[in-house]
Amino acid sequence: MPSLVSDILFRAAAPIIKIGRQRPLTPEDAPPLPTDLNPWNAPPRFATIDTARFWPFFFSAFVATGAPARRIMVLTVVKLVIGITTPLLLHRLLSLLPLASGATSFPIGALLTAIALGTMGMIGALLQQHWYFNALQGFALIMNGLNERVVQHALRLRRSARAGMQTGDMVNHLSSDTDAIAESVFIIPEFTNTILQTIVVLVVLWFFLGPATLAAIATLMIVSPLTVFVAKRYRALDHVIMQLRDERVTLMSQILQGIRVVKFHAWENSVRSEVASVRSDEIHTKVKIVHTDAVSTVIFISTTTLVAFVGFGAYVLGGGQLEAPL
User: How high is the pLDDT of residue 129?
Assistant: First the structure.
C-alpha cells in the first residue's frame, strides 16, 4: 500500500527534486532508467507491425505500447468526467451562496459542494501528471521499437540497396520519422478527448442555454475550416523541411567523405556557399512553421472566447438573463 501511494504521488522524484534545490542538476543525477524503457529492451511486437498503410500503422504503434496506451485512454476519460463535473459543481456552489448568506443554520450543502470542487481540482491536476507520465513512457517505447526495427532492416539490406539510400534518409528514419509516429500517444487520446468533450459540452450548453447553443455550434463550424487550413499548411511545411533536412545531411556526409578532394582543389568557399544555401532554405521554412504555429495558437485560444461570446450573446438576445451561476 505505501508503494502504491508513493507511485501515485511520484515520491520517487523526491530525491532529484531535493538535489535540484541545492545545485544545478547533472546527467549523473538522473534516476536509473526503467528496464522496459532501455533501448536494448525494445518490445518485439514493434517488429511485426504492418507499415503498408499509414493510419493502421499509426494506430498499431499506439496499441503496441501496451499498458501505457490503456492507462492513457482510461485517464483521458476520467479527466473528461472531472472536467465536466467541475463547472457543474461551480454552478451549484454559486447557486447556493446567496441562500447561505441569509440562512439561519450552517450551510452544509454549500460547504460539501466547495469541498467537492476543490477535491476535483486536486485530483484533476494529479491525473494530468499521470497522463503525461504514461504518454512519455509510450513515446519512448515507440521510439525504441521503431528505431531498432529500422536498424535491423538496414543491416539486412544488400550493399546495392544501401547505396541507394541517402544518409539523410536514414537519419530522418531514426529521428524525425519515428518521432512523428511516437506522437500517436498524444494525438490519439487528444483526438478521442476532443470528440467526447465536444459532445458532452454541447449537451451541457443545451441544458443551460437552450436553443442559443445552436449559435455556438454554428460559430464552431465556421471556425473549423480555418483550423483545417492551418493544419494542412503545417503538414505541407513539415514535409518540405524534411526534404531539406535530407538534402543537408546527405550533402554534409558527402563533403566529409570527400574532404581531401575539397581541400586539394580549394573548393571550401564553393562548398560553404552550397551548404549555406540549403541551410538558408531550411531556416526560412522553419520560420514559416513558427508563424503557422503562432496562428494555430491564436485560433485555439480565441475560438473558446468567440464561441462563448456568441452563445451567451444569443442567449441574452433570446430573452435569457445572465446570472452569476450561469
Answer: 92
Burial of 205 (0-12, 13-18, 19+ CB in 10 A): buried
The 10 Å Cβ neighbour count of residue 56 is: 12
Per-residue pLDDT at 86 exceeds 80: yes
146 closest CA partner among 187, 185, 179: 179
Integer-rounded Cα radius of gyration of the chain: 27
C-alpha dist (Å) from residue 264 to 15, 143, 260, 284: 56, 42, 6, 33
Question: CA 118, CA 264: separation in Å to the nearest integer?
Answer: 73
pLDDT per residue as tens digits for the range 143-188: 999 888 888 877 777 777 666 666 556 666 666 778 888 989 999 9
The pLDDT assigned to 79 comes to 92
Question: Alpha carbon of 72 to those of 75, 116, 128, 253: distances in Å?
Answer: 5, 24, 10, 40
Amino acid type, 291: H
Question: 9-36, pLDDT tens digit by residue?
Answer: 788 788 888 888 888 888 888 888 888 8
Output the pLDDT for position 100. Answer: 65
Distance between CA atoms of 51 and 79, rounded to whole angstroms? 32
Residue of 148, 163, 151 lying closest to 253 (CA atoms): 163
CA distance 310 to 316: 10
42 close to 144: Cβ distance less than 8 angstroms: yes
Say how far apart CA 84 and CA 90 lie, in whole Å.
Answer: 11
Would the pTM of this model clear 0.85, i.e. be above it?
Answer: no
Rounded to whole angstroms, the Cα distance separating 190 from 300 reads: 14
Residue 181 burial (C-beta neighbours within 10 Å; 0-12, 13-18, 19+) = buried
Q: Per-residue DSSP letters for 67-105?
A: HHHHHHHHHHHHHHHHHHHHHHHHHHHHHHHHHHHT-SS
C-alpha cell at 247: 538534402
